[in-house]
Amino acid sequence: MTKKYLTVSALNNYLKRKVDIDSQLQIIYIKGEISNLKRNINSGHLYFTLKDEKSNISAIMYKGFAKQLTFDLKNGDHVLIEASVSVYAVTGYNQLIVRTIEPDGIGVLYLQFEALKKKLYQEGLFDSKYKKDIPLYPGKIAVLSAYPSAALMDVMQTIKSRFPICRVIIFPIPVQGKDAYLHIVKTLEYVDQLKFNTIILARGGGSLEHLLNFNEETLARTIFDLKTPIITGVGHETDFTICDYVSDFRALTPTAAAIKATPNLLEMQDNLMQLTNLLKTNMKYKIESSKKELIRYENYYLFNNPEKIYGDSAQYLNHIQERLINGMKNRLQTSKTKQKELSLVLSSRNEIFINEYNQHIAAQVNLLKKNMKHKIKYSKTDFMSLVSKLNALSPLHTLERGYAIVSKNDKNISSIDDVSNQDKISILFKDGYVNAIVHKE
């Protein structure tokens, strides 16, 4: 038997044809890690290796498909791929002909997030030049969060412990669910008109799906257009949303947002005490230095023996000496007065904050009383209306108009067919019962 030898090319071409006609290999879905990524500058094709813990396979993505990628592919990315399998006849290697690539584990939501992020960045919505400064000493803060929620509790406790003289108004919002962002948008637009010093938008952590409403373009543009400075504390430290990029300050957590929004009153008091002590120390030093300077001038030879040098000018020098001493005394007195004025100003400022806080509490109490009074009045009116309607439908009311209720054996009779001749019946009038016997003609 004569042996027929194949060429290498013939074998590779045979394998290629077998693979190309295998329907199971025309469309496959495969996942793995990108490595050895290269882009051909001339053709625009992407070449890379897809690997897992045990194996790898070469892959090519032609220019037309590569241009449709919605994210920046890089080495180390874990991806989901739609492709077909082929054999490269020149080398005999199996390879993937790739059509689509998506990030593994995130999918469409991540791609939408990245696309919107890129769009708003190019429009300049993330630019630092548009970000407003957060007030150092706010009088009123608006907090938008789910009610009740752990995030809201963290924010309120932090503000209370740091700056209790600040007024805080809570505006409950839904933080997840379909179209929750539309309610957040309306609330932000309303709060922006109320002249708050700062707005805090807070939410606890969650997956990309849970934070979906905070990645909506409408909400991002609303935040960008706000006149009131806004701090976002959405999720945990690793969570980033589109709102975080647009806001005036992105805090790592809701608690961090409250810290950014308020000064620490205890630290302010400590700083004031340190400044007071420093002022006292400087004043003491100034006084001691001035005393030493006065003593030096008093012992100065010209002041003690003016007649030996200036003769008749002694009186003039005494006059100069007195002016110098009085001037130093005036400077010391002025410094003491300024110190007292500073203390009064700081004390007055604290009183103003406390008075405003008390006025706010009184106003809320009055509003609650007013609302309760209105609710009781409305409930009384509604109750009387229902009683009137019920009375109109009452059988007793019907009896008063001359009607009667006929019964036999405690059962109401509504038809002549319900009774027979000589049956005993009861007739109820508006003022009592009578018994009767039926007599049919």
TrEMBL record:
Gene that encodes the chain: xseA
The enzyme's E.C. designation: 3.1.11.6
Protein name per UniProt: Exodeoxyribonuclease 7 large subunit
InterPro entries registered for this protein in UniProt: Exonuc_VII_L, Exonuc_VII_lsu_C, OB-fold_nuc-bd_dom
Family of the protein in this entry: Belongs to the XseA family.
Function: Bidirectionally degrades single-stranded DNA into large acid-insoluble oligonucleotides, which are then degraded further into small acid-soluble oligonucleotides.
Location in or out of the cell: Cytoplasm
Catalyzed reactions: Exonucleolytic cleavage in either 5'- to 3'- or 3'- to 5'-direction to yield nucleoside 5'-phosphates
Record's subunit section: Heterooligomer composed of large and small subunits.
Gene Ontology molecular-function annotations: exodeoxyribonuclease VII activity; nucleic acid binding
GO biological process, one term: DNA catabolic process
Residue ranges occupied by any Exonuclease VII large subunit C-terminal domain in the UniProt entry: 125-436
